[in-house]
């Protein structure tokens, strides 16, 4: 599957047209954001900061995403105020684990 780029429109009041090859051309009032990790490689996991994070309606019949991650996978308002805990799309955004803290008070012992 080849996807040149995938975007979600953030404003519904924008206008668009199509050119002779049926490509969509966004015009005035449009704001778009790329929301997937790598759509060209069919990696539709959400990028950090994606507007699709936390903006889905949580449906009781949809309990997991395509990776088996629970849906919702976080409490409401965790990622931002108004976060529903459910994400738009096939995959829930999983907050990356921070790297472990650097050890403190280390001593070098020579033997």
Walk me through this protein's architecture.
The chain is built from no helices and six strands. Strand 5 and strand 6 form a beta hairpin. The relative contact order is 0.17. The chain has a domain of about 40 residues. The radius of gyration is 20 Å and the shape is extended. The N terminus is likely disordered. Helices cover about 0% and strands about 15% of the residues. It is mainly β and about 110 residues long.
Question: Which properties best describe this structure?
Answer:
single chain; 111 residues; mainly beta; two-stranded antiparallel ribbon; two-stranded antiparallel sheet; 0% helix; 17% strand; extended
Blueprint (SSEs and pairs):
Blueprint: E1 7-9, E2 16-18, E3 24-26, E4 32-34, E5 36-38, E6 43-46
Antiparallel strand pairs: 1-4, 2-3, 5-6
Provide a compact summary of the structure.
By secondary structure, the protein is mainly β.
The number of helical segments is 0
pLDDT below 50 for ≥5 consecutive residues: which ranges? 1-12
Overall spatial form:
extended
Q: Based on helices, strands and strand pairing, what is the structural class?
A: mainly beta
Extended strand count: 6
What portion of residues belong to β-strands? 15-25%
What's the gyration radius in Å? 20 Å
Mean pLDDT: 74
What is the CA–CA distance across the termini? Answer: 59 Å
Task: Profile the largest sheet.
Answer: 2 strands, antiparallel
In what order do the strands lie side by side in the largest sheet? 1-4
Helical content band: under 10%
- The H/E string reads EEEEEE
């Amino acid at each position: 599957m080849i996807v040149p780029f995938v975007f979600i429109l953030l404003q519904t009041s924008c206008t668009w047209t199509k050119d002779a090859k049926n490509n969509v051309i966004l015009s005035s009032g449009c704001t778009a954001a790329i929301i997937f990790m790598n759509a060209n490689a069919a990696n539709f996991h959400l990028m950090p900061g994606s507007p699709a994070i936390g903006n889905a309606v949580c449906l009781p019949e949809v309990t997991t995403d395509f990776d088996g991650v629970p849906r919702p996978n976080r409490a409401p308002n965790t990622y931002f105020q108004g976060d529903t805990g459910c994400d738009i799309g096939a995959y829930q955004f999983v907050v990356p684990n921070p790297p472990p803290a650097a050890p403190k008070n280390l001593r070098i012992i020579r033997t």
